[in-house]
């Protein structure tokens, strides 16, 4: 993935590697080796479950370990590298912390730059023109479309990703989670909560 979107001025949004994967997929499906629905299920799992799990564990560790949180906010690239299992994509990963006063949201207005190493594959809507344009102009409206209503006094800050600098939202830890393990906390962290278009689950929500 290292050749993904390193320039914003090239014509195609697909890297050579992605094009090769697409071509291979097409052949496998045409020859009947692969059920396209099975492929969709795999892609969906990487978008929503397997990919974002690294990010969820990082958020959970930041919630549970104040020293790690401090390190993450100071230099996310370095902090994430200490966990060993994540290989960097861009030059800089920046973690931005949500507070009652400020909510952070990430976008790539020019194409689809995304912190693959911590969130996996970007969702389709992230790459869409409406999200890319509206996230900056009307972030509160976009959040409403995602079913998120924040207090009026909460400022919304939108971070525009590039190939060099990518962002990870550190959501607020929900109440009622004192003493939880990092694994348990990570189950509360949704992909969208780390993009800023969603909130984390509450303990009550995962109990049902
Ligand atoms: Fe981009």
Secondary structure elements and their pairing?
Layout: H1 16-30, H2 36-64, H3 66-74, H4 76-81, E1 92-97, E2 102-107, H5 116-119, H6 129-137, H7 139-145, E3 155-160, E4 165-170, H8 182-186, H9 191-195, H10 203-207
Parallel strand pairs: 1-4, 2-3
Bound molecules: fe (iii) ion (FE).
Question: Which stretches are poorly predicted, pLDDT < 50 over at least 5 residues?
Answer: 1-11
- Please, what is the CATH homologous superfamily? Nitrile hydratase alpha /Thiocyanate hydrolase gamma
Structure annotation, total helices? 10
CATH topology: Nitrile Hydratase, Chain A
Which CATH-level-2 architecture?
A: Alpha-Beta Complex
What is the rounded Rg?
18 Å
- Note the main sheet: 2 strands, parallel
Number of domains: 1
The gross shape turns out to be globular
With strands numbered from the N-terminus, the spatial order across the biggest sheet is 1-4
Helix content: 40-55%
Strand composition percent: 5-15%
Small molecules held by this entry: fe (iii) ion
Average residue-wise pLDDT: 88
What is the number of E strands?
Answer: 4
Order of helices and strands: HHHHEEHHHEEHHH
| Termini separation | 38 Å
**Class by alpha and beta content:** alpha/beta
CATH secondary-structure class: Alpha Beta
Oligomeric organization of the protein chains: single chain
